[in-house]
């Protein structure tokens, strides 16, 4: 009884076989089938190779939400060279609440405003990158992927600066921590002093002939400093046409959380518009000579996450490629064969009908007629 039950079970399983085996004696190999198989295998190999590159690649996902962090401090990273002596200028921040931020984190270093050949090459390269970033927005994803936490100088060529000539400029570099409200970071004539209504600069002690606010922004960023990221103002160089010149930068800061396979940090992106003019009180152009960076903080936060295709999805897509090509090439091969058979059958049927007509007309004597070849 048990053997009969097993045989019935095996018979039932065999009937459920969705992949019946065809004996080899019933299989006929043709040249057309071999050609189609070769094309199918080639397509499968190429598409599988390309799919593997898609699997190994990553992409950036952008998400937006309201920034609820209003109590933390905002870090400003600065590296600016101004074509004036360090004792003649001062840099500080005044926020929207009229709070003056201490500039203890900034260093004043006497340097030469002219760049060495290596520095000039780096500066030109940076300008080319900035031009490409304005056109190819997808390059920003590449910068996000290459960002890392290695501590390095913002400007890699200051070690090769020529110190043989006397310094005629001042490099202001370092960082500041300010409140997360709109503010004004500025560099102007004279050192800043606290004031009950804000602050003031001792500009009366500096001669107007020494004014020269030509400057070069080697780096300006907000938030955690991440080497590898390029900010919009990096590499900006402005030459003042007059000693009484005002440069204004209006900056909108967007908080950004960056999560990649190399780094996870909270930083900030920003957009900027520029304006400059000559101060001439007689012509109605009022103001103070200097470099003014007025910034505002967006209420939206951007989450940038590097993502990768899961392995199971790669297998599903790979199986879809193999099965799809097999099915498609099989259907195309069968359709072409069917059309060829139909065409050949019609041709043969035409010859058969001509022979039958002659037989009916001439009778048995039609065998003596010489029919034209089909």
Automatic annotation (TrEMBL):
The chain crosses the membrane at residues 35-55, 314-340. The keyword Cell wall biogenesis/degradation does not apply. Its main location: endoplasmic reticulum. Pfam families: COPIIcoated_ERV, ERGIC_N. Keywords: Endoplasmic reticulum, ER-Golgi transport, Golgi apparatus, Membrane, Transmembrane, Transmembrane helix, Transport. GO terms for biological process: endoplasmic reticulum to Golgi vesicle-mediated transport; retrograde vesicle-mediated transport, Golgi to endoplasmic reticulum. Plays a role in transport between endoplasmic reticulum and Golgi. Belongs to the ERGIC family. This is Endoplasmic reticulum-Golgi intermediate compartment protein. It comes from Oryzias sinensis (Chinese medaka).
């Amino acid at each position: 009884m048990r053997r009969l039950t097993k045989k019935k079970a095996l018979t039932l399983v065999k009937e459920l076989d969705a992949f019946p085996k065809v004996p080899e004696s019933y299989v006929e190999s043709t040249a057309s089938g071999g050609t189609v198989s070769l094309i199918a295998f080639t397509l499968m190999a190429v598409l599988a190779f390309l799919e593997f590159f898609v699997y190994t690649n990553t992409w950036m996902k952008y998400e937006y939400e309201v920034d609820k962090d209003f109590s933390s401090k905002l870090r400003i990273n600065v590296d600016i060279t101004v074509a004036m002596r360090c004792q003649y200028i001062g840099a500080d921040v005044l926020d929207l609440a009229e709070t003056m931020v201490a500039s203890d984190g900034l260093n004043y270093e006497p340097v030469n405003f002219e760049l060495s050949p290596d520095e000039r090459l780096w500066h030109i390269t940076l300008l080319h990158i900035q031009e490409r970033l304005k056109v190819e927005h997808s390059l920003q994803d590449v910068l996000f992927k290459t960002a890392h936490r290695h501590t390095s100088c913002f400007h890699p060529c200051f070690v090769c600066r020529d110190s043989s000539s006397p310094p005629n400029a001042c490099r202001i570099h370092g960082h500041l921590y300010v409140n997360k409200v709109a503010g004004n970071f500025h560099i102007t004539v004279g050192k800043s002093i606290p004031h009950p209504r804000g602050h003031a600069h001792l500009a009366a002690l500096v001669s107007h002939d020494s004014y020269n606010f030509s400057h070069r922004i080697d780096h300006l960023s907000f938030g955690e400093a991440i080497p590898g990221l390029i900010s919009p103002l990096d590499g900006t160089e402005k030459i003042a046409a007059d000693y009484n010149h005002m440069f204004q930068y209006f900056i909108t800061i967007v908080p950004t959380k960056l999560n990649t396979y190399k780094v996870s940090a909270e930083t900030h992106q920003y957009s900027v518009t520029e304006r400059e003019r000559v101060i001439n009180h007689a012509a109605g152009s009022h103001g103070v000579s200097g470099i003014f960076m007025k910034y505002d903080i967006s209420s939206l936060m951007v989450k940038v996450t590097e993502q990768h295709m899961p392995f199971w999805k790669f297998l599903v897509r790979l199986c879809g490629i193999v099965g799809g090509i097999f099915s498609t090439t099989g259907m195309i091969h069968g359709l072409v064969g069917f059309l060829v058979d139909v065409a050949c059958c019609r041709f043969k049927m035409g010859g058969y009908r001509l022979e039958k007509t002659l037989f009916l007309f001439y009778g048995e004597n039609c065998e003596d007629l010489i029919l034209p070849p089909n």
